[in-house]
Amino acid sequence: MNTRITREGDINQMNETFYTLHTFMLHSESVTYFLMLVSLLGILGFWLFLTARDDDHE
Amino acid sequence: MSGETSTVKRTLITPFNVITGMIVLVGLMITVLRFTKGLGAATNLSDYHPWGIWIGFDLLVGVALAAGGYVTSAAVYIFGMKRYHFAVRPAVLTGFLGYLFVVVALHYDLGRPWRLPYPFIMGWGTTSLLFEVGLCVALYLTVLFLEFSPAPLEWLGFKKTRNLAVRLTMVLTILGVVLSTLHQSSLGALFLIAPSKLHPLWYSPYLPVFFFVSSIIAGLSMVMFEGMLSHHAFHEKMDETHLTESDSLTIGFGKAASLVLAGYFTIKIIGVAAGNHWDLLTTPYGIWFLVEIIGFVALPCFLYAVGVRDKNVKWIRYTAAWTVLGIVINRLNISVIAFNWHLPAADRYVPHWMEIGISVFIVTLIILFYRFIVTRMPILYEHPDYQGGGH
After folding, report:
1. Which tens digits make up the pLDDT trace of B249-262?
2. How many CB atoms are located within 10 Å of the residue A4 CB?
3. What is B47-381's CATH number?
4. Is the ipTM of this complex over 0.90?
5. Which candidate, B131, B127, B100, B53, places its Cα nearest to that of B354?
6. What residue ranges do the domains of chain A occupy?
7. Which of B247, B267, B276 to mutate: most A Cβ within 10 Å?
8. pTM for the full predicted model
């Protein structure tokens, strides 16, 4: 794993250093929430693609 | 008389019988060796790798692929998709045989078969996930046996007992869904104890969710894949409903599988994001992870969607086979390939040929039992005495 403790309490991951658990959580949770939003829109679009030729649409 | 004997000889010596006969013979010899000489004589298991392919393939893959039973029963009896009713019996039979042989295969790993009921008799390990899995599998195997029982009872002509068993259908379906939700997810939760051993791309606090969601995909795909094989092997055993409605089932299940795969792909990516493991995607293990996620999750998701839009049944069935392979790869990745990933090559686990032999033996036994039952009992057709009976 590329995650390593560089100093006591510091987490180096993805060439970024997170000095506290708070900054790490803030970063990863922000990315996660953004991806969730994109996924919800993506799955909506995928549902429209999947059902576009259903009999009840014709 | 001699003419009759030669006819019997001709029908017995078929390529199928010869190959399965040889596999069964070798399997029995390895079984004797394993139970008389111990794990060391038949496996490459070690203290680093106490779980090999007998757990990774026979148990984890077996349980996932047997999910077709609860998925199909839930679709028909809980979600009211009565048009798929004809698919319940083959799916329940596959589930029943799958779980039955998961328990058989477990004996090879555990040894001392007479001690299998110990956790339920000697002491309830209520804080153990493994106990929960064991209890759920034992209960669900009983549920599957009862769900399957109308078929042999119709075959044997026990009308009253059969009618009693049919009346239990709804209760058994609900129990089946509850128990499957519990143990399918718990099998993933077993690996939560090993964050330092399982590669971070596969390890996630969401492992129970991943296992449960992927079991739905496995169940849907396995019903379609098994349907394809049954159409080739037992075409003459199928009634009109099976022959005419199977295309509609394939399109319906293909659509469901596509949507669940899209959701599964999303939560797998969110799993990477939650651990902030993006940098690992460029490592060799990361590339293998991408092969799994793109090749065996995103690709079949898209292929299913294309097949459903074009109503291309053959395309959907081939995609189902590809997805089943993806489930096998996923479970082996978690239990074997990405497990103890940091160990030097010399300490890594490579299954012994006898371990593979037993896994092939178990799969062969499932096929033989399935063939035996399907050619005798009303699985792919409705028994003439019970037509329109609602089961």
Report:
1. 999 999 999 999 99
2. 9
3. 1.20.1630.10
4. no
5. B53
6. 4-57
7. B276
8. 0.90
